[in-house]
Amino acid sequence: MTPKELNDRVRAAKEEVERRGETFYPGPSRIHLASFPPKERWDDWVELDSRAWPERVERRYSLVPTTCFNCESACGLLAYVDQETLQVRKFEGNPEHPGSRGRNCAKGPATVTQLTDPDRILVPLKRAGARGEGKWIAVGWDEALDEIAGRIRRAIQEDRHNEVMYHVGRPGEDGFTERILAAWGVDGHNSHTNVCSSNGRAGYQFWMGYDRPSPDFANAKVMVLVSAHLETGHYFNPHAQRVIEAKKNGARLIVFDTRLSNTATHADHWLASYPGSEAAVLLAVANYLIQHDRYNREFVRQWWNWREYLVCERDDLEPSFDNFERVLKELYRDYTFEFAAAESGLDASVIEDVAQVVATAGTRLATHNWRSAAAGNEGGWQVSRTLFLLNALLGAVASEGGTFPNAWNKFVPKPIHTPPHPKTWNELTWPLEYPLAMNELSFLLPHFLKEGRGRVDVYFTRVYNPVWTNPDGFSWIEVLSNPDLIGLHVALTPTWNETAYFADYVLPMGHSSERHDTHSYETHDAQWIGFRQPVLRALRERMGQRVADTREVNPGEVWEENEFWIDLTWRIDPDGTLGIRQYVASQQRPGEKLTVDEYYAYAFEHSVPGLPERAAAEGLSPLDYMRRYGAFEVGRRVGPVYTTDVSRDDLQDIREDQFGRVYTRAPKPPSPNVVPHPTPEPDAEGRRPVGVRVDGKILRGWPTPSGRLEFYSRTLAEWGWPEAALPTYLKSHIHPDHLAADQMPLISTFRLPVHIHTRSANAKWLDEIAHTNPLWIHASDASRLELSTGDLVRVETEIGYFVVKAWVTEGIRPGVVACSHHMGRWKLGETGQRQLMATANLDHRGASWGLTRRGGVEPFASSDPDTMRIWWTDVGIHQNLTFSVHPDPVSGQHCWHQAVRIRKADPGDVYGDIAVDTDLARDVYRRWLEKARPADTHSPEGTRRPFWLLRPLKPPKQHFRLPEPRQPVAAGTGSD
Ligand code: SF4
C-alpha cells in the first residue's frame, strides 16, 4: 500500500468514525486505531477469546498501564488482566503515552512470555558450592538482606566506602538507585555506558554540554541517521514512527550503515561506508556547506564560540567574525568529496548528492547517532561531533524539525529525599588515565582488580551481564571467581544470565509489570513522564484492597527494586546513627520506612507541573492518575530554551568575561525538573554562570564553559587533546592503515530488532523469531575464501577465535564482515534459560580458556505447553568473549569493531567453539592504556577531571583534586 493509499484509508476511516458520531482517539496519541480501548472502559473491557474460535467466548479484562522494560524507550504498555483469574493475559500499547502513542515493537507484547517463562527465578538463591559450580539453595529475603546489609555497614564504618559497587546494565529508571548510593555515601555507581554510548555522548557533550540528541523527526525536512535506528536504536519505536511520519510528508532520509539494515532499506540515500569513515563523509558534507556559504551565518555568529577559538588558537588574527569565516573555510577545505570517497569507499558523486540534500534542510535537519559508528571506533566520538556540526552550521538546533539536547525534552520529578553526593572518589571506576571519560571505565574493572588497584567487598550486578555482554568475558570470570577480589557478588536479575552463575546471591527482580519506576525520554519536542507499576498491585488497589509489599502480588518471591533498596538501606542503618536511614524514612510516619506510595505521591504532587490539576479534574490524586493512565505529558513544543532571556532584575552583581559568559551571585531558581545537568565552573569569586551575552541581551545559552555551542572545545585542548578540539576526523583502530593485509573489520555491534541484550532468552515468541547470528560476508569475499552459506568459519581476533556459520550476502560492504549482538547464550548445567541457552563446557588451563557446546536447545516439558513445541536448536555464538578491551583514550568507550582474520574452520572445529588467552587480553589492555593522557600529567588545574563534565554521582569539588603523587602501579603486579 502506498502512503497515499494508506492516508486515504485512514481519512475514510476517520470519516466513518465521525459519521457514527464518534471521535478519533482523544488521548495524547491523537491517533485513531479502532483497537485502542477507550480509557473510559479500562475498568471493564470485553474481548472475544481468540483461542475459543469459532465459539464466541467473551473475556472481561481490567486494563492497567505500565511501562515496558525491554529497552530504554520506555514505551507505554497496557496490561490486560483477566477478571476471572487476576492474571495478565497480554500486553498491548498504551494510547495515553505521549512517546509511544499506543505502539510497541515486538518486545513490548512479548513481556507476557517473560512473566510466564517456566525457567524464571522465583526465589532468592544463595550459592551452595564454589562460584560457578551451579549449586544453589533457596533462602529467605531476610537472610539475604541481613548479610548484604551487614557487610555494607561494616565497609562504611571501616571507611572502605570504595569497596561497595553497584554495576547497572539497563537502568530503566531515573535516578532512584543513584540516590540510594548517595545515601550510603559511596561513589559506587558503575554503569554499562562505556560499552554502549560514551562515544556517542562525548561528541554531543563537547558541543553543547548535554550528552544526548533529541531529533524532532516528525517535523524534519531532512533526516540523517548514523545507525540502524528505525529498528534498533535508542528510543527507536517512538523515533521510528516519527521518522516514517516525516517521510510521508516528503522528508528525505539519509542512512549510514555498512549493512543493508531494515533502516537502510527505508533510506532515500543509503551510505554503506567503510566502518570508521563516517566522520570523513560528514566533514565533506560540512565542507560543502561552508565553502558554498550555505550555512546559517547568523546562527554561527551568535552561538558558536568562534571568538574563544580565535583568541586561544589564532592570536595572529583580530577576533572578528569575518576572520573566523575565512579560517573556517581554511580549516575544512581539505575535506573534499574525493577525500571522503577515498576514506569511505563511496562514490564522490553520492556524497555530493547527499551534501546538496542536507543543504536544503534549513533549520529542519534532524540527525541522530548513538551507538553504531560511534561505539565501534576509536575516535568514534567525532562521528557525533561531526554529525552535530551539520546541525550547528544550519542552525537546526532546538528548532522545529531540528535536533534538541535531551535535557529539554525530558522531565525528571524532584524526589522526596535528595541525599548529598558522596565525599569520596572511586578510582576503580574513575581512574586517572581517563579524565574526560563520559562514564565509569566499567569494562576495565577485571584488569584494575588484577593489577591490585583495589578490591570490591560488595558487588551488585543489576540487570547486567558483563561476562556475556562485555568484551573479554573470561577475564571477568577470573575476577568473579576470586573472593579476594570480589568479596560478595549479588546478582539482581529477573532471569538467569552468565554472570549470575558466578554470584553468591541471585535475587529475583520483577519485569515491567512487577515493579515501580518513573521514566522520561527525549522522544520528540515535548516533556513527559511514564510510570512503571506492578499492575496486579495497582489493580487490587483499584478494587479497594491494600497492598503493602509488592511481593504480595508478584509471582513466587519476586520483588521490585524500589522496595528492595529501601529495605536494604534501612537495615544498613537500623538505628539511624550512620545518617543513612533518614533518606529512606517516611515523612508522614516518623520513625517508619518510606513506602513506594509515599515516594511517588510526593513526586507527582510536588514536582510535576500540571499533573495535580489534571488529576483533580478527574477527581483523582496525582498518584491515582498515574496509576490509572501510566503517563503524563508535562509540556509540548519546548522550543529553543537556549534563547530564553535571563536578564532579570534580580541578577545581582553580575560579571561578564571576555567572551560574554555572564556570572551572577543571584541564587539559582528552584526547578521541579531535576534532569542531570553539567555544572559549568563558577568564576573566581564564586558567582555562578547564568547565561551568555548575545547582541546585548543575556540569554540562557548552553551549559558549556563558554555558554555557547563549543565548536572549539577548550576542555579538550587544555586536557591534552588539542588536535581533537575541533570537529575533525580521527582514524579508527580498524582504519585500513592499521590492518594487516589479511585482516578485515568485523562489525559486532548491530542488534536484532526482537531481542534485548541479555534478558530475552526467556521470551519464547522472540526466541522463535530470532535465534542465530551467522557471519555476514559479501559474496565477493566468500568467493575469495571459498565459502558458502552455512560453512563453518573461524574468526580470529587479537586474543582468540570463535567458530560461526557463514551467511553469504550482497547486503554488506565488500571487505567487511558482521555478526549480530544478542546471541550465543550459554549455561553450564541445567540451571538457566532452556529456550535460548546452549549447554556448554568451560575449559580452563592457566590463562587459556575455551568454551565448547554440549548441546543446543530442544523441546522440554514444563508448565508451558509451548516449550514442547520448540523447533529450533541453534542459539548462535558468543563472539564478545573473544574481544579484548579497547578503551577510547578520550571518552573511555570500548571501541567494539575488531580487526579479524577469516578462514575456513579447521576439521576439528565445532560450531560455537570459543578459545581465548587472557594473558593476551591483558597485553592488549596495556597497549590501549598507553594511549591515554592521564589527569596527573595533563590536567591544567590539578584536578582529576574537568568539574563541569557530567558524572552520575558527583563528589564535592575538593574531591576532584588530584591525590598526592604516589608510586605508579607497576605493570604485572597483582594477582594475575
Ligand atoms: S521499543 Fe519495544 S522494547 Fe523498547 S520500550 Fe518500546 S515496546 Fe518496549
Question: Describe it for me?
Answer:
The chain is of the alpha/beta class and 976 residues long. 26% of the residues lie in helices and 17% in strands. It has 29 helices and 34 strands. The strands form 7 sheets. The protein has a 7-stranded mixed β-sheet with strand order 6-5-17-16-15-7-8, covered by helices on one side. Strands 25-29-26-28-27-33 form a 6-stranded mixed β-barrel. A 4-stranded antiparallel β-sheet has the order 1-2-3-4. The longest helix is centred in the first third of the chain and has 17 residues, at 3-19. It is globular. The relative contact order is 0.14. The model is unreliable at 967-976 (pLDDT under 50).
What's the SSE blueprint?
Layout: H1 3-19, E1 45-48, E2 58-67, E3 76-82, E4 88-93, H2 111-115, E5 125-127, E6 136-138, H3 141-157, E7 164-168, H4 176-184, E8 189-191, H5 198-208, E9 213-215, E10 222-226, H6 229-232, H7 236-248, E11 252-256, H8 262-265, E12 269-271, H9 278-291, H10 297-303, H11 306-313, H12 321-332, H13 337-344, H14 348-359, E13 365-368, H15 372-376, H16 381-394, E14 403-405, H17 445-450, E15 456-462, H18 466-469, H19 473-480, E16 486-493, E17 505-508, E18 517-519, E19 526-532, H20 535-542, H21 561-572, H22 596-606, H23 611-617, H24 622-629, E20 631-636, E21 655-656, E22 661-664, E23 688-694, E24 697-699, H25 714-718, E25 744-747, H26 764-769, E26 775-778, H27 779-784, E27 792-796, E28 800-809, E29 817-818, E30 826-827, E31 838-845, E32 848-855, E33 898-904, E34 914-917, H28 918-929, H29 935-938
Parallel strand pairs: 7-8, 7-15, 10-11, 10-13, 11-12, 15-16, 16-17, 25-29, 26-28, 30-31
Antiparallel strand pairs: 1-2, 2-3, 3-4, 5-6, 5-17, 9-14, 18-19, 19-20, 21-22, 22-23, 23-24, 25-33, 26-29, 27-28, 27-33, 28-34, 31-32, 32-34
Helix pairs in contact: 3-21, 4-21, 5-16, 9-13, 9-14, 9-16, 13-14, 23-24
Bound molecules: iron/sulfur cluster (SF4).
